[in-house]
Write a structure and sequence with these properties.
Elements lengths: L4 E5 L9 H14 L7 H6 L5 H8 L5 H22 L1 H4 L6 H9 L4 E6 L4 H10 L8 E3 L11 H10 L6 E5 L2 H10 L2 E5 L14 E3 L5 H9 L1
Parallel strand pairs: 1-2, 1-4, 2-3, 4-5, 5-6
């Protein structure tokens, strides 16, 4: 399978803009426990981390039990908001994302994957809502892996597809994505439209500003 290449996408902040529901759900979760909501920028800074790790950063003074309760409250709030609005409105695709996915899926030498801090349930709902069933041959979610930037998700994607690390690339909007890529020995493409600044994407080999630039960059990187 050495003639294939593997393109792995982060989800929140890379494929879809879910910041409204993420911030809103976090505010609801903290309110449920009678705690002041963290600032918006602080919430967006932890997007991509597994929820248990995220809560440790957002509420370091809380007990372990309270952090677990915050995770449960966040999950419920997010599900409620998604059910009320639907995935398309709740987490819209970024401009050009669908066109890029369609073009890459049509390439017989390109395999698509996902590595996300979302749960299996959350990813399944998003994929169904955006009619992306069958697009991704490997889907790595937070349920089964240590939190980013641990390389486990990428390592599993490589193992499942049989594509070598030299022919794989991670696309994401956060420092966690780029550090995960480096730890796994694959190349990293940062995107500027997500939740971390250019400065935080220091581990990215290149940063793109629009989806229209993705395919040429992939061809340049991987052939």
């Amino acid at each position: 399978m050495s003639d294939l290449r593997l393109v792995i996408f982060d989800v929140d902040g890379t494929l879809v803009d879910s910041q409204g529901d993420i911030v809103g759900s976090m505010s609801r979760a903290f309110a449920a426990l009678g705690k002041p909501a963290p600032a918006r920028e602080n919430v967006l800074s932890i997007v991509g981390l597994s929820l248990d790790v995220a809560m440790q950063r957002l509420a370091p003074e809380a007990s372990l039990g309270e952090q677990i309760d915050l995770v449960d409250a966040y999950k419920q709030a997010y599900q409620d908001l998604r059910a009320a609005k639907g995935s398309v409105e709740s987490s819209p695709l970024y401009p050009g994302a669908r066109q890029a996915l369609d073009a890459l899926r049509a390439q017989p030498y390109t395999l698509l994957g996902v590595a996300t801090g979302k749960s299996r349930r959350g990813l399944d709902s998003l994929i169904a809502g955006h009619t992306l069933e069958g697009f991704f041959v490997t889907e790595q979610v937070a349920d089964h892996h240590p939190s980013k930037p641990h390389p486990s998700m990428i390592e599993a994607a490589i193992a499942e597809t049989g594509v070598g690390a030299a022919q794989a690339v991670m696309i994401g909007d956060t420092s966690f994505d780029m550090s995960m890529a480096r730890a796994a020995g694959v190349r990293g493409i940062g995107v500027s439209w997500g939740y971390h600044s250019h400065e935080k994407l220091a581990d990215a080999e290149i940063i793109i500003d629009r989806y229209e630039d993705l395919l040429p960059v992939l061809d340049q990187m991987l052939g």
